[in-house]
Amino acid sequence: MTVTALAAATAAEEFGHLDEQSKREIRCALLTAVAVPGYQVPFASREMPVARGWGSGGLQVTLAVIGPQDTVKVIDQGDDAGVNAANLRRLIVASTGAAQTTDARAASIIQTRHRIPEDPLGEDQVLVLQVPVPEPLRGVERDMRELRRMHAEADYTAIWVSLYEDLVRNGLITQTTGYPVLVGGRYVMATTPIPRWDVPKLHQAEFLALFGAGREKRVYAVPPHTDVEPLAFEDVAFQVERTEGASCLLCGAVDAYLVEVPARAAWICSDTDWCERRRSAESEDGEGAREGVADA
Amino acid sequence: MGYSAARGGLDAILAAEELMRAKRDGGSSPPLGIDQVTERLNLAVDRVMGEAGLWAPRLAALALRQAEGDLIEAAHLLRAYRSTRMRLAQPVPVHADELEILRRIVPAYRVPPGPQLLGRTLDYVGRLLDTGTGPPAPANPEPPEPVAADATPNGRHPGRLLDLLRSQGLIRDRRRADDPEPHDVTKDPVRPGAPRSARLSVMARAETGALVNLWYRNILGPDGYIHEVTLGEVRHGRLPVRVVHPVTGQPVCLGEVRVTEVEAIEDLDGEREERGFFDVGYGLCLGHNERKAIAMANLDIAVERDAGRSPLEQSVLMTTDGLDASGFLEHLKLPHYVTFRSMVERKVAIRVAAERRVLESPPADSPPAEAATVPGVAR
Fold it and tell me: Would you call A258 helix, strand, or coil by DSSP?
């Protein structure tokens, strides 16, 4: 049997692959996470049909919160067609019967790896981020007992010192993706490896952001209207990725997260659906109507 | 194009799945029967059940066949299958003394209490590759049970060396009452500072190679938190599985599992340790897998003696799960171009910042140099 058929067969027995007991456990952990923004809540991570490190945490979160009336969008690197995004999407859809879309505006749940869509998300939307490494302080401390103490006491000296040392040595803060942020003025949180470009989208957002780290068995959350401040100094501003003169080869966008196409010495939007809609809107005959991703 | 682009990824993975299926289920030989896997590849089945933490020989064989013999992949299939099943009951604890032995050796004594029962082992079979025509067709479908000289009911349930050492007052007694319910690592994730039951559960499900490597790394590698122990018991046998009957309230036996059990006797030779005593490390895993149980028993006592002074406990708890490690390793194959673009941007920015600093503080005897052009970076 094919994977799609197997996932659908499982759905006949258990909606959303996991048994109800497991989904309740995950929802309990998520409620704690929403109540304590930025705090890493341990949860009994289940083994999923995808490997640890391949979105198993995000998948558990999505399957715990999804209902049959939901419309789901799944992206990897901003691309709905990415192979892992396609695999996760077919598992979610086959085991829940939820609708699927590539349009971020039409989705009630968006599961993502490494990006937040360029479209502003609203209060009726949930963003589920796949997290490889939930611990923002691991770069400065390896001992898990000490890490617990640091978070409990809000002792974030070590990461501040490391940012300062970085600045002194390199003239700027060299942290690339997964930039550390202070959530609700209390917990330092890892922003998954989303680029710095996406970090400001989490600040005072309309939407609920849920983070799932399956391998490390942690979930955390940024509820709507929560302060998310990148760790930066008063006189050294937080910088997002920006390349002078770069614009999307396809849609001409300047104000979007662009990725390089070295073979053509060009740039394209990482958010493929947003880019496509911009092009449809440009062409006079296109109404920008979107089709859902066809089922396999 | 958004539509067709999204199809692209799906078409590719469906094609990859079909290539896997065609090679696995195709070929000229007859399909592999599940009974063949459980009978002829029983050690692989045992290993998969142990690393999956689930006793289910038929399901493990199905998983092994589906995974084309990849043990980690098979354990993954089995664990993911279990994620779909409701937990119906908790078994009643059984004492390890109920183990009905199929094999038992006591390296610490020539004539221990109870039998030395070599049983089924390759330990003393020369490793000579048989290039002949293969085994004859089975004459007897039921292979004979290993028979010990005193395979009486008592001979199958011998006392253990630990009891002898206890009676001699040679063992530091660590039996305790404050950890009565074993920590269920599938319900509560572990972290350092975990009770011993959590440590043992993690290792019972750990990948065999990970435990062996962690042990050897401590013997010959840079860590060195272990020294070689003397094995008190190495056992392979059957344990009953009992649950409380929902109607009668009485324990009923549902069946049995085979396990490997090891007791490792450690010489307490540290400066601050009780030098007049031995201590014992414990290993037990599903199926016949002595390598794993021995490494487990060694690591158990090593973590106990280490008492949180080194990172050993964190290594045992956090780095030995086969699915965690393999999954994360292989995820490196996923696209990472969003993150890589961010890294490239910072590399360029570092160079620009370095050049700006040179410009801002020119040496007194030389005019400021023309800024080297590093294209495309915002200041």
Answer: strand
Q: Could you tell me the residue ranges of all domains in chain B?
A: 2-82, 91-121+146-173+208-329, 335-379
Total-model pTM: 0.89
The reply to whether residue B5 touches residue A245, judged by beta carbons under 8 angstroms, is no
Strands A187-189 and A181-183, sheet pairing:
antiparallel
| Secondary structure in 3-state letters for B92-161 | ECCCHHHCEEEEEECCCCCCCCCCCECCCCCCCCCCCCCCCCCCCCCCCCCCCCCCCCCCCHHHHCCCCH
Instruction: Report the alpha-carbon distance of residue B169 to residue B326 in Å, rounded.
Output: 45
Residues from chain A that touch B86, judged by Cβ atoms under 8 A, are 19-21
> Is-contact A141 A162, C-beta < 8 A?
no
Give the nearest partner residue to A22 out of B83, B324, B339, using CB atoms: B83
**Which domains are seen in chain A, by residue range?**
3-136+177-230 (3.40.50.11310), 243-286 (no CATH)
Q: Distance, in angstroms, between B88 CA and closest chain A CA?
A: 11
Active site residue A28: no
Q: Say yes or no for a CB contact (<8 Å) between A53 and B331.
A: yes
Distances (CA, A) of B323 to B53, B71, B84, B114, B198: 12, 10, 17, 39, 18
Per-residue pLDDT of chain B (379 residues; tens, 9 = 90+): 334 445 678 899 999 999 999 999 998 999 999 999 999 999 999 999 999 999 999 999 999 999 999 999 999 999 999 988 888 888 999 999 999 999 999 999 999 989 999 999 999 999 999 898 777 777 666 655 655 555 565 678 998 999 999 999 999 988 888 777 889 999 899 999 999 999 999 999 999 999 999 999 988 877 777 777 899 999 999 999 999 999 999 999 999 999 999 999 999 988 888 899 999 999 999 999 999 999 999 999 999 999 999 999 999 999 999 999 999 999 999 999 999 999 999 999 999 989 988 888 766 565 544 444 444 444 3
Find chain A residues with C-beta within 8 A of B336's C-beta. Answer: 77, 114
A255: contact with B, CB 8 A cutoff: no
